Amino acid sequence: MTFLPPLQQIPASIAAVSDYEPFARERMTPQAWAYMAGGAADELTLGENRAAFQRVRLLNRVLEDLSGGHTRQQLCGLELDYPILLAPVAFQQLAHPDGELASVLGASAMKAAMVVSTQAGISLESIAEAAQTPLWFQLYIQPDRDFTLALVRRAEAAGYRALVVTVDAPVSGLRNREQRAGFVLPEGIEAVNLKGMRALPPAIAQPGESPLFGSPLLEHAVTWSDLTWLQAHTRLPVLLKGVMNPRDAARAVEQGVAGIVVSNHGGRTLDGMPATLDMLPDVVQAVQGRVPVLLDGGIRRGTDVFKALALGASAVMIGRPYIHGLAAAGAAGVAHVLHLLRTELEVTMALTGCRTLADIHRELLVLPRAGR
Q1: Which positions bind FMN (predicted)?
Q2: Beta-carbon neighbour count of residue 272 at 10 Å?
Q3: What is the pTM of this model?
Q4: Which residues have CB under 8 Å from 190's CB, separation 6+?
């Protein structure tokens, strides 16, 4: 099967982020597409992330003074020009040969912060050397705690500005689309930042045995005490990614985290969870302004960014949209995706009478009514 090379020029037919999807799909193998685009099980949560934004409507304001408007935001020590970050996505060379290096180039061109995955296919140091924009490091706390600490030290030394600890995947979700496509990592793509780590012994359940409980994987699953350990061993701010339950959000704040990311892993872990947008107000209420709350999952328009901000998010992260841009056109595609979303956000702000992000409020939304 022959796949098309990356675009050398962005065609005029790409007018919105969603327009990148078909261009991306025809430039990736079916197996890589299943990995990047798919969700867990029946992909109900994957679909809900989009549907939640579509259920919310906007209410305009007229004759407001928009002079001096901007989208600047302070976030955990960062001075952002606009509140859109690149979320951590693993193995980006599945989408484009340059992988994370192309993504960070696109982010740098658009002055957007990027969160680099533990499972990047390129070393965290090489990504940092190529970056001209702030970076955070997404961390999975590994069963090998000594290796985890060494990884944290590498991120600190390379200039990463925060750790984003993913906490919603003690095990991988049941990704049936990947299974049906026969996905395996191609030769030459691996989690290079984890090379040299002591691996857990393989565990294969015998007939009649529990396939999961009692396995080494769950015996070493991360707990709140591991978060305390990490906080005591790094000078970087620690954010938690994967928080959907308000009780967990409140406990995390009490434990001193620097921020919360409302995320259901892009619908890739527990299928049947609600959309991140639907849970955002409850998490914001639990946090009570003590730390910033970010959101990812389902964002495809600048209006989506606006809706998340109106419901209390300080900023958002995008994942699949920039991967589609990456697969279609490399760094230029990533930059264009960010440009489209920022433009749409600013247009939305102007049409709703919002001069700055501080003017974006819930009263500018029309929310679904119960029973409808």
Answers
A1: 88-90, 117, 138, 166, 241, 296-300, 319-320
A2: 12
A3: 0.96
A4: 121
Cβ atoms of residues 242 and 275 within 8 Å: no
- Among 189, 183, 184, 166, residue whose Cα is nearest residue 116: 166
> Residue 292 has which token pair?
């910033």
Q: State the CB neighbour count (10 A cutoff) for residue 115.
A: 27
Point out the annotated binding site for glyoxylate: 35, 140, 175, 263, 265, 268
- What domains sit in the chain, N to C, each tagged with a CATH number? 17-181+221-365 (3.20.20.70)
Please, are residues 314 and 292 in contact by the beta-carbon 8 Å criterion?
yes
> Would you mind telling me the total number of residues written for the chain in this entry?
372
Binding-site positions read 35, 88-90, 117, 138, 140, 166, 175, 241, 263, 265, 268, 296-300, 319-320
CA distance 131 to 90: 17
DSSP, res 140: P
Rounded Cα distance between 32 and 55, Å, is 31
User: Would you name the residues annotated as active-site residues?
Assistant: 265
Residue 354 contacts residue 360 (beta carbons within 8 Å): yes
Bridge partner residues of 295 (DSSP): 262, 316
- Are 276 and 326 in contact by the 8 Å Cβ rule? The answer is no
Burial status of residue 225 (CB atoms within 10 A of its CB: 0-12, 13-18, 19 or more) = exposed
Phi-psi domain of 77 (left: phi exceeds 0; alpha: psi -120 through 50; beta: other): left
What spatial distance separates the first Cα and last Cα of the chain, rounded to whole Å?
Answer: 47
Mean per-residue pLDDT pooled into runs of 10, the chain (372 residues): 83 97 97 97 98 98 97 97 98 98 98 98 98 98 94 98 95 94 96 89 71 72 95 98 98 98 97 98 98 98 98 98 98 98 98 98 91 48
